[in-house]
Design brief:
Chain B: Keywords: Membrane, Transmembrane, Transmembrane helix. Chain B: InterPro entries: DUF305_CopM-like, Ferritin-like. Chain B: It holds the Pfam family DUF305. Chain B: This is DUF305 domain-containing protein. The complex is a heterodimer of chains A (about 270) and B (about 220). Chain A has ten helices and six strands; from the N terminus they run ααααααβαβαβαβββα. By secondary structure, chain A is α/β, with parallel strands linked by helices. In chain A, helix 1 packs across helix 4, helix 2 crosses helix 3 and helix 2 crosses helix 4. The radius of gyration of chain A is 36 Å and the shape is elongated. With about 220 residues, chain B is mostly helical. Chain B has two domains: about 30 residues; about 160 residues, Ferritin. Chain B has seven helices and no strands. Chain B is elongated and about 100 Å long. The chains are: A alpha/beta (about 270), B mainly alpha (about 220). The interface between A and B is large, with 40 and 44 residues.
């Protein structure tokens, strides 16, 4: 109100000189006192009804004419800013509360076998010898009693599916690639694995795409090591996809390569 | 305020019914204001811990993730020594490290879970620590054994395994203490600093014990 006063004083003469504008203002003047007592309280209503009778048309003109856009714009800007801060907070809280499952599902091209084939991705038993898997490379299912070491191990030769699936059960992300993948891309992938527990990587004969990532019940196939979805997959699923929790070990497993799984009789050999 | 002012005005003014309406509206407005205030307070109480807990790139989250990795290798080496070593003191220290640090991994992973964060960060390992990223060699944090050293430990038995394990683990602990010192400087989250201080106390005393055992064996 106090801000609008100077602007109102400046414009008042032009309003008073025209008779036309006074009429709508007077109309407003008759309607507003009836409304105001209920709205803004008794103090103002008392002031307007007491002694100021003849000036009544002028006072409402002040209200309608005193609209200076600067302060209004400022208030709107402040309002928008406040709303956006609250909105961002709500967004951050919502994003933070998005589950890893939701984030995994939002990766384009990911295959979620937990939804597609729930039976396949149920916790599975140990099994001796060679095992036939329906998904290639496998993402879940029965597996050897020994897991492949997944302490950031970068294997330069093929490993046994039967051991690798056990690593997936422990929450590892297994990166596989076509043996003829350019060395620079292999190195780019290895940099994501080396030194990082719950990660392992190996070449894979007969892969239908250059690179394939596996976690328990999830698979993503991409064409290039610089694909941003690789990091998204690892962030959402490493450890999180573990069937057995974050404290299960990736060490004390098989560190040798070769596609033949170890049988119990071979222990210690 | 409204109620104390209204009665005298109401009696003085001729239009009584509107005064009553005004008073009723005032009560409604007050009730509304209290309700809105309660809601805002509740929302603030709900949002504040959500917005003030360590974020995805915080030092606390970085420490929890990277110390998990660091601990995981200590457990790996200690389990090898438990299986392959022969010295009673060295294998006993190994059992202590394997079970103790595996427990600490559980604590740190629980922090991340409670903070709504993934075990995997968006930034490179050790990025939370000043000059931390430069201290990483081949993905290995300070003090961590190389793949070649691990293979050597796997291939050793008896006294040779004891000596190699103690040598590698002393170096490993010193690197770990370096990371603990960094988080003690960077964080004021009491859960994190208390646990970090305990890690430091434990690893420092273990370094002393391992040095004495190594002297005895060599």
């Amino acid at each position: 109100m106090s801000v609008s006063t100077p602007a109102g004083d400046q414009r008042r003469p032009s309003v008073v000189s025209t008779g036309k504008k006074a009429a709508p203002a007077a109309k407003k003047a008759t309607s507003s006192p009836a409304k105001k007592p209920s709205g803004t309280g008794p103090k103002k209503a008392g002031a307007s009804s007491g002694g100021k009778g003849p000036r009544k048309p002028i006072a409402p003109i002040k209200v309608s004419q005193g609209r200076s856009w600067g302060p209004i714009a400022l208030m709107v800007a402040v309002g928008v800013l406040a709303a956006s801060i609250i909105g961002y907070g709500a967004y951050a809280a919502f994003q933070g509360s998005r589950s890893w499952e939701d984030r995994a599902n939002s990766i384009s091209g990911i295959v979620n076998y937990r939804e597609k084939d729930p039976k396949l991705t149920e916790p599975a038993q140990h099994q001796q010898g060679k095992i036939q898997y329906t998904v290639s490379p496998p993402v879940a299912g029965p597996h050897n009693q020994d897991w492949q070491n997944c302490m950031g191990d970068v294997y330069d030769a093929q490993i046994a599916n039967e051991h690798a699936v056990h690593s997936l059960e422990h929450g590892a992300v297994w990166i596989t690639y076509q043996p003829n993948l350019p060395a620079a891309q292999v190195e780019e992938l290895a940099a994501k694995v080396r030194g990082q527990e719950k990660m392992l990587m190996s070449p894979y004969e007969g892969l239908d795409k250059p690179i394939s990532l596996q976690a328990w019940g999830y698979q993503l196939k991409v064409d290039n090591a610089n694909d941003g979805r690789i990091d998204e997959f690892i962030k959402a699923l490493r450890v999180n996809a573990s069937v057995e929790g974050p404290t299960i070990s990736c060490a004390q497993g098989i560190t040798a390569t070769g596609t033949e799984p170890r049988n119990l009789t071979q222990q210690g050999s | 305020m409204v109620t104390t002012e209204t009665p005298p005005e109401a009696t003085a003014s001729p239009d009584g019914p509107t005064r009553a309406v005004g008073r009723r509206f005032g009560t409604v407005a007050l009730a509304l204001a209290i309700a809105v205030g309660l809601l805002l307070g509740y929302a603030a109480g709900w949002l504040t811990p959500t917005l003030t807990r360590p974020g995805d790139s915080s030092p606390e989250a970085g420490f929890a993730r990277d110390m998990t990795t660091h601990h995981a290798q200590a457990v790996q080496m200690a389990m090898l020594e438990w299986r392959l070593g022969s010295d009673r003191e060295a294998t006993q220290i190994a059992a202590d490290i394997a079970t103790g640090q595996q427990g600490e991994i559980g604590v740190m992973q629980t922090w991340l879970k409670n903070w709504g964060l993934d075990p995997t960060g968006s930034e490179p390992v050790m990025a939370w620590m000043p000059d931390g990223a430069e201290s990483v060699k081949d993905g290995l944090m300070p003090g961590m054994a190389t793949t070649a050293e691990l293979r050597q430990l796997e291939a050793s038995t008896g006294r040779a395994a004891d000596i190699l394990f103690l040598t590698l683990m002393i170096k490993h602990h010193l690197g770990g203490i370096h990371m603990v010192d960094a988080i003690l400087k960077l964080s004021d989250n009491s859960d994190v600093t208390e646990a970090a201080q305990r890690m430091k106390n434990l690893q420092q005393s273990e370094v002393g014990n391992m040095r004495a055992a190594l002297d005895r064996l060599q």
